[in-house]
Write a structure and sequence with these properties.
single chain; 253 residues; alpha/beta; Rossmann fold; 8 helices; binds nicotinamide-adenine-dinucleotide
Length: 253
């Protein structure tokens, strides 16, 4: 019940999917959680459902100035910032020949630049008192996929950026740990929408091929990724920094 008792956490993209599941897991173990998202209606409704220790704030994680408002706001209300989960992300299936520059740039902007902005803003506020920054990467940052060039580039970038920032903080003597979580395929709207945008035939083939690559033979549930976030947020992970925590049903084994 108390694995993260009293810790103040911010989760981007927390209105649904993995971010919402992480919020539920952290709240169940005693944290206070601010979820942020572009989707105001869902975010507000979920924060209300989550109870007294949850809040929602609208944020586009790609906008630098909004980071100051979000993090200073949470410190003004709850007095500290212990955990940042850079979770907001987007993705779509389209190969390197067809992907547009606009789609490439938007994917990098949300999945990588937003993580950089959040990490930089959080380090500035955590370096005296300490904290844990958790960046949502993916097994798509470990393996190439012919249909995910921008997503692969962004998630590979998140993994190696996470290491750089973790080394910097540890070497500087800041009590800040920074890690990446690399989920495999999870049942969320992101995956459903990406597959749904394909023609039915292509979608069926892709779904079957993907399932065949997972030794456990199923997608993860969001709560099964949230437990990895919870571990990295907690003091149980006090010697873990600069790591990738892979949670993929054996897919990359
Ligand atoms: N679902 C999977 O299989 C899977 C696997 C590996 C990694 N991931 C990663 O996990 C994270 C969450 O994915 P999910 O499956 O829960 O996705 P999702 O689409 O269900 O939820 C993502 C949330 O992020 C929000 N969002 C998008 N852009 C934003 C922005 N610029 N600022 C703030 N919020 C924004 C969306 O509104 C949405 O509520 C992403 O980084 C994703 O790449 C997902």
């Amino acid at each position: 019940m108390n694995r993260v008792k009293g810790k103040v956490c911010v989760i981007t993209g927390g209105a649904r999917g993995l971010g919402l599941a992480a919020a539920e897991a952290l709240l169940a173990e005693g944290a206070k959680v601010l979820i942020t998202d572009l989707d105001v209606a869902t975010g507000e409704a979920e924060a209300k459902r989550l109870g007294n220790n949850a809040r929602f704030r609208q944020q586009d994680s790609t906008q630098p100035e909004q980071w100051n408002d979000v993090l200073d706001g949470v410190i003004a209300e709850w007095g500290r910032l212990d955990v940042l989960v850079n979770n907001a992300g987007i993705g779509s299936f389209i190969d390197v020949e067809k992907v547009t520059l606009e789609s490439w740039q938007r994917t990098l902007d949300v999945n990588l630049n937003g993580v950089f902005l959040g990490t930089q803003a959080a380090i500035a506020r955590m370096k005296a008192q300490g904290g844990s920054i958790i960046n949502m990467a993916s097994i798509e940052g470990l393996l190439g996929d012919g249909m995910l060039p921008a997503y692969n580039a962004s998630k590979g970038g998140v993994r190696i950026f996470t290491r750089s920032a973790a080394i910097h903080c540890a070497r500087s003597g800041y009590p800040i740990r920074i890690n990446a979580v690399c989920p495999g395929f999870v049942d969320t709207q992101l995956v459903a929408s990406a597959i749904g945008a394909l023609s039915p035939e292509v979608a069926q083939t892709l779904a079957a091929k993907t399932m065949a690559r997972i030794p456990m033979g199923r997608f993860a549930k969001p709560a099964e990724i949230a437990t990895a976030v919870l571990f990295l947020a907690s003091d149980e992970a006090s010697y873990v920094t600069g790591s990738d925590l892979v949670v993929d049903g054996g897919m990359t084994a």
